[in-house]
Amino acid sequence: MLTAALLLVLACDGDEEPLYEQFNATTDQIEVEVGGADLLDPRSVELHSNTGTVVVGSASVDPGGGPAGTIVTLLVEVDDAYEHLVDRVTVRTDSGERGEDEYDLTADSADEGIYKIQLEAIAEDGEQRTDVFVIRLWDTVGDNDAVDTGGAGG
User: Fold this and answer.
1) What is the predicted pLDDT for the residue at 81?
2) What would the DSSP string read from start to end of 78-107?
3) C-alpha span between 107 and 89 (Å, rounded)
4) Count of CB atoms within 10 A of residue 104's CB?
């Protein structure tokens, strides 16, 4: 009976959600203008390490804003030197009075450092605002981030 209970507890442990810690600076963000009449030029920003000292990648939005209904593509590129450390990328959207949401970006199947999402600009007629996209790079706590260099030894 005790053995069955231990097996049940061990089986449940594998179903837990992984824990993540933020890899990049909490101030990494990009602004998107919503409600204007024209599509705006793409915008991009550098992404930094958690201390803000090292550039670890970049994020861009295309277009940089536009009227209600505009589909904005957010592309995050993690530099090759750090892409093995980043296990997940999210964007927290702050749309002022409309509230905040958080979305997972889709990882590219051919390049582990590229993440992408498309979001629609929602606005009422005549409404204009600046949405803030906070880019968050996540590292799984306790995973093995060692890079296989192909060398001997261990």
Assistant:
1) 96
2) E-TTTTTT--EEEEEEE-GGG-EEEEEPEE
3) 8
4) 12
